[in-house]
Structure formats: structure tokens, C-alpha cells
Amino acid sequence: MRPPLLIKNALRIATMDDAGTELADADILIRGHVIEAAGKNLDCDGAERLDASGCVVIPGMINTHHHLCQSLTRATPAAQNEGLFRWLTTHYEIWRHLTEPYAALGASVGLGELLLTGCTTSADHTYLYPRGQTRLIDAQIEAARTLGIRFHPTRGSMSLGVSQGGLPPDDCTQSEEEILRDGERLIKEYHDPGPYSMLRIGLAPCAPFSVSPQAMKQTAAQAKRWGVRMHTHLCETTDEQEYCLKRYKLRPVDFLESMGWLADNVWLAHMVHVDDAEISRLAAAHVGIAHCPSSNLRLGSGTPPVRRYLDAGVAVGLAVDGSASNDTSDMLAEARQAMLVHRVKSGVGSMSARAALRMATRAGAAVLGRDDIGMIAPGKAADLAIFDVDRIDYAGSAGDPVASLLFCGASHRTKWTIVNGRVVVENGLLKNVDERALARQANAACLDLLSRAGVTA
Ligand code: ZN
After folding, report:
1. How far apart are CA 27 and CA 39, in angstroms?
2. pLDDT over 70 percentage in the chain
3. How many A from CA of 213 to the centre of ligand 1?
4. What pLDDT, in 10s, does the model give residues 236-249?
5. φ, ψ of residue 205 in degrees (nearest 5)
6. Order of strands across the sheet that contains 119-126
7. Rounded distance from Cα 275 to ligand 1 centre (Å)
8. In which region does residue 2 sit, left (phi positive, over 0), alpha (psi from -120 to 50) or beta (all else)?
9. What spacing in Å lies between the alpha carbon of 30 and ligand 1's midpoint?
């Protein structure tokens, strides 16, 4: 049995509770994997202590969309200045050479960066399975366990190849039977629906332009049968909208509804191109959104109307998206990006630092269907991000240390990241992985993938 963990003397604790309570000069007591108390002058005999003087503590952030494999294909030559469809077709030629060891490596890089920048729970969407590489998600799960992060991998899929009018090469797609069988295998083997779960599986056809309607409908039935959540990309670009109108005579949201996907166990990545009536329908159906501001900017896709989503009562979480379109897994930078971009889109008063942090924490939990993470309160999971703001890059922000997390700061590393009561980042370094060795392996893998695809580095 681990001794209790007592975090002492935090400069500020932003609890992200309903009232937005923030505590000054306060402590947090953790017993096992659960927060027992947060308040002033806490003590506990026999507890291990962390001195959080000069630190701001927030709930561990929640990343609601990723493609961890892409961590090996960042800043790819020939795809740096392309929009989504050409960016995808360029990368398919590289990703078709992915292997299980490379999936583990990409996951270690992406999840490692997330932990270092204050994220304690991450979703993933792995949808491309080269022939014979059927256990990419298993490899990622192993990496997540080693790093100690809470993980929501989704079993992605593509069934509509070029020969059937889809976007991906035929040999990167799978049959509907193969997709459903593997989804069921993963749920049976790994899915833990209980409180404080460290691992939940979701089902995630890739997008309307790479998945058959049959696969969408079958996935909805399978998710209902097993009580798991469903995820896909939608309304990312105007190209996708034109594809849906041409192929299905429907706008993407109408297509989604016709597939039985406007449901409360669904969360959608992007949702940039929508009208007001569609926003109301998404709110009424309790569909969640994974907002990926950096990726949308990088690919020139647009910026979603997040202020309108929030005003309509839609749960909007934040996400770094895959590392070929961001190209980092820096969760704190993503919250800052969200704060800044909506000031341009919807006015300077439309997105405060605290509103962006709430999307990154509480709302992210709601998007993943969880009420046991995203908040610092007794009974919640002990997932914490502890940032040292007693540094030159935060100097002069003592008037509001919580907001300084987004307004200031050059390096976004936490001092400590705690997941499920365990310290997994200590003094700004991953505890369970050698970062330099990981970076060297990832760069070698990157060059290998580029050369296999015939791309000159
Ligand atoms: Zn994505």
C-alpha cells in the first residue's frame, strides 16, 4: 500500500469545480488513486510530501483527439503547406509502412509530451492498419501503461478505398467484418467501464470520405451493444462538405444523423463548418466536440464557432490532434491557442484563460463521458498538473498566477504530473522513460518511414 501523498503550500489551486473555486496557499491530500481533500493547513501522518510553493495546480488536462502514430511523421516534407485531402494522400503513402513497434514508439512520444505539458488523460484515434499490422492499438496500450497515463484509445477504421470512391489507398482499408471483429476483441480484452478507469475503448470510423455507410451503421449498433463511446472526424473542411453533398446528397451533420450517430455516446473531432440549426441539433442530441485549434489553423481548415457551441450548451473539449498536423502534443499550448484564436473569430471577450482551461479539463471529461476526472475535489481521481510559475518566463504575473499559465510561459513543462495518485513527471522529466533515447529512436523511425515511401528528407 502506497503512503498518502500530501501536496503542500501551492500558490494557487484552480479546482475547476462548478463555482470556479480557486484556493490560495493551499494543500491537496491524496490517498491511493483518489483526492481526499483540498484546502488550507492539511496534514497527514506518514504522508509523502511535495512542496508546491510557487506552483499553480490544475486538474490534469484531458486530450480528446489524437493520432499518436503521427508523432513519427512531423513536419513532413511535401505536406507542410497542403490542405487536408492532399495532406492525407501524401501521408497515406508514409503511414502504410507503419508497424507495431513504430506504433508503440509514436505513442510513447505523443503520450510523453502530453504528460510533460500537464495532460493526464488522452484519447487516440488509430484508423490506418497496413496489411498484417493488426495490433497497433495493443502496442499503444502497452506504451500508455509504461508511461502511466489514463488512456482512451479508439478503434478507428477505413473501409472505403480509392476504387470505391474513397480517399485512402485500397491496401490501407479493411473489410467491415474485420473492423467489427477487432473492435469486439479490444473491448473484451481491455475496456474498463468502472470509476477511475485507466483504459476505455471507443469505436471510431475515420471520416465520411474513407468509411462506408454500412460500417458507420454497424459501428453504432456495436457501440450500443457494448456500452462504449463512438468517435469520428466531421465538418473539418469544405472539401468534406462537398464530398458529402456529391456522394450522399447530404450535409455532413445530416449524413451523420442518417447513420444513427446523433447520440449522447458520440464525440466528434473538428466541427468547423456548421450552421446555427446544426449547432442546436448537436446540443439537443448531447453530442460532444473535440476542438483542435492548432490543427485547424495548420491545415487552413478554418476555426469552429466555439463561442456559439458553448452558448448553446454543447460540451467542447480540447485536443492537440495528430502530430502530423500540429505538430506537437503540447496540451498547455493548445489551451493558449484556443484562448487566442477565438478572440479573433468571436471578439476579444469571447474566450478567457479560465474558459480555455475549463475546456481542457471539465469539458474534456464530459466529452469522454467521465465525471471522475477533470476537477480537484474529494472523491475525484488524483490527476494533477503542477506548474512552477516561480520562473523568469512567468515573472511579473503575480496578479493572476492561474491566468499566467496561458498568457505567459515559454516552456510548458510541469514540475510534477500526477496520474491516478502516481507521480509520472518529476522535476520536469518523465519518470518511466528515457526522453533522449526516445527522441533518437523516433527520428530514426521517421527517416526509415520517409525512405520506404520514397520521400527525400
Ligand atoms: Zn484527427
Report:
1. 5
2. 100
3. 19
4. 999 999 999 999 99
5. -55, 145
6. 61-63, 119-126, 150-157, 202-205, 230-234, 266-270, 288-291, 316-318
7. 21
8. beta
9. 35
